[in-house]
Amino acid sequence: MIPQGGSSRYSRQLLIHGAASQAKLQSSSVLVVGAGALGCGCLPYLVGAGVGQITVCDGDVVELSNLHRQVLFCELDIGRNKAEVAAERLRLLNSDVLISAVAQHCGFRERTVMLVESHDIVADCSDNVGTRYLLNDVCFLGGKTLVVAAALGTEGSLARWNYEDGPCFRCVSPTPSHHESRRKCTDHGVLGPIPGALGALQALDVLRCLADMGDNGSSVLRIFDGLSLRPFGLPQRRRNCALCGDNPSLISLADSERWARNQGLSVDSNYQMCHFGAFPVPPLAPLPRHNEATALDLKAALQSSRPCVILDVRDSIQFTICKLPGALSLPLRGILEQPVVTTTKVRDASSSHNPDLFVLCRRGIDSRFATQILIKLGFRNVRNVTGGLDAWRREADPTFPVY
Prior knowledge:
This protein is α/β, with parallel strands linked by helices. The chain has helices at 6-9, 11-26, 37-49, 82-93, 110-117, 129-142, 169-172, 178-181, 185-188, 193-211, 253-263, 295-303, 316-321, 332-337, 339-350, 366-376, 388-396; strands spanning 29-33, 53-57, 98-102, 121-124, 145-152, 155-161, 220-224, 229-233, 292-293, 308-312, 328-329, 356-360, 382-385. Pfam families: Rhodanese, ThiF. GO terms for molecular function: nucleotidyltransferase activity; thiosulfate-cyanide sulfurtransferase activity; URM1 activating enzyme activity.
């Protein structure tokens, strides 16, 4: 039964799918994980369409750099939790919809299982690989469909997993690919309309599933390049899939958490590789404590009389945006692909003073890889700057540029 006034509010879509489908939407519930750019593109259309209950889950706060693409927010929202602000704005759009905010990231905990189980379908707008595997596993174990969107640069993708007898995400990606697990728009940019378009398409796919609109019989992966939308048919469910196969090895959330730890994945959206990931990297392993340094350690070293060299492993584009005085540009890709050249460059920079080598990147993740490699190449006085330039700005120099 359409509520009073609903025939007017939803009149344009009622002409498309009819009253029965609208009633299905209004009795449905959607969990939207991520209120960033994809969420800002997806959420208004779910709310506008009259989905009965929507929960928004995000632990991040609004930043100035978000505003060019996360159009639910404004300058006055900077520093506030994204899920809470999004819920406030969306309630103004449609009072028929019950909108809840969860001001934290999804994680390997019972709360995530409860959230998934209490909704009819899940939309992953996090664009975080660790979260994608987590939600895929929890959705499969709970019998829920997962609609996933991703965006970077001028490209994006949209997929539906665990739908009827279709494949799960692990059927297509049993383990994170180098390209997939190390991409993040904070380091390599994204045009605002790209995640907006992908989020809108994601909302469309959720509505199709909930209201049985169109042909929902097969799972499809859609690749968006900013100019065209090319559909690719997905393979059938893999019989040897670790999650949905005939003899699964992942049968609980604890199994999924152990697997993620072994893969070096995190569901914290702030933990991502700093580079685009078009090249392979070694596994991320803990560094010995004496090979770690804080931003304040680096500041003290620069102010002391002991010689030190800063090795900046960001790509050349980021290096031109901002850098510490005297830093040597030594991109991670070059370290991986040309270790002999790297050794020569570092030794030339070190001269004969046996200086301390401080390795840093934007957030201290790529620099950990680089530090591991430099240790294997024979360098001893090498230390990774934990937190990278972000930590430098927070702890050592608040005037340092942020990007």
